[in-house]
Write a structure and sequence with these properties.
Layout: E1 18-22, H1 24-44, E2 52-56, E3 59-70, E4 76-82, E5 86-106, E6 109-133, E7 139-150, E8 155-159, H2 165-177, H3 179-205, E9 209-211, H4 216-233, H5 238-249, E10 263-266, E11 269-276, E12 279-284, E13 288-290, E14 315-320, H6 322-333, E15 339-341, H7 366-369, H8 371-376, E16 381-388, E17 393-395, E18 404-417, E19 423-441, E20 445-459, H9 467-488, E21 493-494, E22 501-511, E23 514-523, H10 525-532
Antiparallel strand pairs: 1-12, 1-14, 2-3, 3-5, 4-5, 5-6, 6-7, 6-8, 9-10, 10-13, 11-12, 14-23, 15-16, 16-18, 17-18, 18-19, 19-20, 20-21, 22-23
Helix pairs in contact: 1-3, 1-10, 4-5
Amino acid sequence: MSDATSVTDEKNQGLPGVKIRLTSNGVSFISKVTANILITEVITAVVDLPPQKVQFDGGYVELQNLKMEMKESKHNVNSKLIPPNNVSIEVSDLGININGKVNGNINGNNNFMGDVSLSNNGFKVLLGINILSNNHGIPNIKLNSCKIKEDVTPKITANINLLKADEKEKIELGIAKKNNEILESMICSRIEIIIEDRINDRFSLIPNKLPMNVLAETAILEEVVSKMALRRRQIRNVENLRLKRQALRSLSSSFNLTKANNLLLDYGIVGEPKIVNNILEIDSVSEISLNGRGGTPFGANKFIYPEDVKNGVMMQLIVSDFVPNTLMYHGHTIGIFNTRIDSKTPHFSTMMKSSCSISSGVLFCLGDLFPTLKRTFPNRELAMLYKTIKAPVMKFHDKTSGGVKFNIAGQITILGIESNGEEKPFGSFIIEVDSSMKMRLSNTMTKPKVTIENMKFTTESPNVITQQELNQAGILTKEVLQRMVNDMLKEGIPIPIHPLYKLDKPRVRIIERAMLIQTNFKLNEKLLRQLTASEVRL
């Protein structure tokens, strides 16, 4: 049979299953969407800052209870990738009013009080951030620098009834000189809190092993809300959380193999993200395993991929054939490929008999394929049970080397159904199938279509199903088996990308031992808003 059977012998070297390559276009898009969301949060965030003290010749003032108010502005966002893992972000053309209370002393006039307004237009926020991962392979953002650059002189207005006009002007000039520092303190402190206390903290609460379905967003928010509630109550009800997670997984609707609810995809980051040739590269484990426990005995191969990225795309994904093979391996252990074919199965109903004739209205049945079975057990309704006897294997090659190869081996047991409904095994045989595959992509799934190239049958019950009959049946059953294998894979294989991303018109090319996906993407803004908001709500 084909070389697809050999992948399970490959040593696990701890290499990533997926490489994510974000181009400058992709990082720019993320920066713009995130900045738009964060601006609202920065304005509304509550930060306990000490009063801002402004000293000048002849006195001082303290600014208290300062609050920010966003002006209508068409701000711009620009980003730049800087090795080894830094992103510089500039948000320009911002407009913010700062309003609050002022008190102080000027020319011996003690303890005056009033209102103050700082009107800022056309200023910039300059951010430097590091893209890292924590000890558990979860994304972590570090704020390295935060600066404010003013291009327009701020307008300061102090309303203090007890003071003369020249005294108010002196106070306003003193505040104007310190405006940049005040603005920087208020904005940067809020950005730091949002990054550390919201984004990083909530990412740390999200398990990096998530169910492979469209409800992953709900699962993420459920995890965050539950763990935040437990943290506040200082309760560690781990069992309750586990039951909730299982309930969410059981609602799977995108990946509908009924026994696959507990197969989890590991989104964990391997090593640190790095910037190479103006591309942000992130390596991901991308192992699919039962309950996320890992344990796959083989590993991914080292990537050999083209350095160039298609012009204009936001992201390149290199998906090793390790990823689908972990699904095949762990799926086999829990029987997700096992199936039953009987008279109720579409396309097969009329042929599931040991005897048929023109007079009965059935022109062809299993008894015609296996005459010994027909003679030994005549006039019986039949059922077939299929189960894999080893993990199916999928192997990616470039087009010149044969494309995608798929090998699956299983046992078929033929059951006789008595008039009282009792089922008895009549015989069994082993079938091994080598196929080629074509891949079709949706925004969330890889949909394979199988074409059988080679089949091998081995009888286990020669008194009922002879080897000669099996060999002859193979010629006639190729189309039936092809349909059966395609039915097993019809729900597709999920593209291993974090639920924060929604791929937009992905294009696929098969390279040696990997699938190369070039794509634009949208961001799951609902989820992103929840991860940055002051409160997380389901």
